[in-house]
Design brief:
Layout lengths: L22 H15 L2 H5 L39 H22 L12 H7 L11 H13 L9 E2 L8 H13 L10 H18 L7 E5 L2 H16 L3 H4 L7 E6 L5 H8 L7 E4 L9 H13 L3 E8 L11 H11 L2 E6 L23 E4 L12 E5 L4 H6 L32 H34 L5 E3 L10 E5 L11 H8 L1 H12 L3 E7 L2 E7 L8 H15 L3
Helix pairs in contact: 1-3, 3-5, 6-14, 7-14, 8-10, 11-12, 14-17, 16-17
Length: 565
């Protein structure tokens, strides 16, 4: 099958081809990289003027190995004695590669993806690990190859996931974090990062609406783990003896969440020994919002059976529909039955930055805990997820194990800044710095403008397709978040009466169009079935680089790729 080519094919030379990697192109990129880095390698090496550095490994600036000219072995890098020049040359080459990738990521004439099937990639390159080291030239080639086939998640036409975009300050912060290469468990080895986590989490709690930012929190490895933390702490709050005695010592617990909630609620119940059967799914309305009356009915039923309701997990921004559960009504029910209220705001929490849209989370201030993923709507580089807890000290009591080799009680500073014992992890990555630095660079108003723009683009898409021939909306009404859910109806199905055969054919449309998108590399958007609804497109916008023109392109591309189906 060959789809009809666009009138003006957007791509030039194939990335990685001879045309795209000419010496002139390489020299141009060197000049760009030198401009961005300020010739930092030469400055640090004490050079008064720019020294000739051979690209493709910077081999001219490096000692030669016994293997012969051009074969430089890794031991010439720091911390090897006299390895400074080789190290700076190597790292400048890496920066060249990264800058080229970054600039291409925002270039609409480049592909979002250079798609190859797994067996093709496995056969085309040798990915295996060997006993002997590679040369630095080969290491740089590994870097280029990896990025050649990476998805450009910062591309303005990448709409596939909730986490998109590439923020320059966030990227710089990630580089700094990796260079610092420390752990988050004690103040003594991460003093600035620990303080920044304290400051940032307090600010996030203020935005939730807890007075003075009171409470506790932690950055965790993604929203699924943050949700599991909430379940763990809720269980401990109700039955603290479970920490020592286990599930056998307490009654049968049940949790409640909507049928549109994230799968991590069930996964957390499985991991904590509560069991997926103990997660009761509450019905949603046609827009995907939890129905409070059904929640209360199921709580009463569970109590009548002798079960103990301990957690309600409401969702602020569901994964597929982008729905916001009615938090005020849910909070009233949780208060009535004395149940821990958690809000999974992994996707929708960012709207708290927007004066125009934060009303959608009205009632979140009454929650006992909140998950908020800045790596989604706020565009912070992966990963950056926070769990916020209203009650201070509870997280520490739940998780601490008093490891004496880390958390000595006779240290010479305030031990409250040794935060590691309240985490499930021992080793914990520094996730806060990129959020903190981006917040400093943008201010709250900058995040607000970014988020408002994404929601405006979603409404623009909705308005363009809601009455357009060939499109059917999955639900009526403008989107609550940036999720826009729709079917594309190809010409062959238009006017066909609703039937089992039509449904069967419609189910195959989105997967075929998605596959063609990836093979051409023009754009990426997700699809899925949900309940009794067959495969439909779920468009989400969190990329600040996207524009109205990119939305127009997406519509045209769907129609181009699906017109023959």
């Amino acid at each position: 099958w060959q789809a009809p080519a666009p009138a003006s094919w957007p791509f030039g030379a194939e990335e990685g081809s001879a045309a795209a990697e000419t010496p002139g192109t390489a020299r141009a990129w060197c000049q760009v990289a030198q401009k961005f880095t300020g010739g930092i390698g030469n400055k640090l090496c004490g050079k008064g003027r720019e020294a000739p550095v051979a690209r493709g490994g910077g081999a001219a600036a490096r000692p030669r190995s016994a293997a012969g000219p051009g074969f430089v072995q890794n031991p010439y890098l720091l911390p090897t004695c006299n390895g400074e020049i080789t190290t700076m040359s190597f790292l400048q080459d890496v920066v060249d590669i990264l800058l080229q990738y970054v600039v291409k990521s925002f270039d609409r004439s480049t592909k979002v993806i250079d798609f190859h099937y797994p067996n093709e990639l496995l056969q085309e390159y040798n990915w295996e690990l060997a006993d002997q080291p590679q040369t630095l030239e080969e290491i740089l080639l590994n870097c280029r190859t990896t990025l050649k086939y990476a998805i450009k998640t910062g591309h303005p036409r990448y709409f596939n996931q909730l986490s998109t975009g590439l923020d320059m300050v966030g990227l710089a912060a990630d580089w700094l974090t990796s260079a610092a290469n420390t752990n988050m468990f004690t103040y003594e080895i991460a003093p600035v990062f620990v303080l920044l986590e304290y400051v940032t989490l307090r600010k996030m709690r203020e935005m939730v609406g807890w007075p003075g930012g009171c409470g506790d929190g932690i950055f965790s490895p993604g929203g699924a783990i943050s949700n599991m933390y909430a379940m763990l702490i809720a269980r401990f709050k109700m039955f603290p003896e479970v920490k020592e005695k286990g599930m056998a010592a307490i009654p049968r617990l049940v949790a409640f969440t909507s049928e549109h909630s994230h799968f991590s609620v069930k996964k957390g119940a499985a991991a904590l020994g509560i069991g997926t059967d103990s997660v009761i799914l509450i019905r949603c309305d046609e827009r995907g919002k939890m129905i409070p009356s059904d929640l209360e009915r199921r709580i009463v039923e569970a109590k009548q059976k002798g079960f103990v309701p301990f957690l309600v997990s409401a969702t602020a921004g569901t994964t597929v529909y982008g729905a916001f559960d009615p938090l005020i009504a849910i909070a009233d029910i949780c208060k009535k039955y004395k149940i821990w209220m958690h809000v999974d705001g992994a996707w929708g929490g960012g709207l708290l930055m927007s004066r125009k849209h934060k009303w959608k989370l009205n009632g979140v201030e009454r929650a006992n805990s909140v998950t908020w993923n800045p790596h989604k709507m706020m565009g912070v580089p992966l990963q950056c997820s926070a769990l916020l807890v209203r009650e201070e000290g509870l997280m520490q009591s739940c998780n601490q194990m008093h490891a004496s080799y880390l958390f000595q009680q006779d240290k010479h500073y305030d031990l409250s800044y040794d935060t590691g014992d309240k985490a499930l992890q021992c080793g914990r990555h520094v996730d806060v710095f990129k959020l903190w630095l981006m917040w400093r660079a943008k201010g709250t108003t900058g995040f607000e403008a970014q988020i408002d723009k994404c929601l405006e683009l979603a409404e623009y898409l909705y308005n363009k397709i809601k009455n357009r021939e060939g499109y059917e909306m999955v639900f009526d009404g403008k989107p609550q978040h940036t999720n826009v859910c729709f079917w594309y109806i190809p010409p062959s199905l238009r006017g066909v009466e609703d039937s089992e055969e039509r449904t069967s054919r419609l189910m195959k449309v989105a997967p075929v169009i998605k596959a063609r998108m990836m093979e051409y590399g023009t754009t990426m958007v997700s699809y899925q079935p949900l309940g009794d609804k067959v495969n439909f497109f779920r468009m989400v916008i969190s990329n600040p680089a996207a524009t109205h023109q990119d939305i127009d392109f997406l519509i045209d591309e769907i129609e181009r790729l699906g017109q023959d189906l």
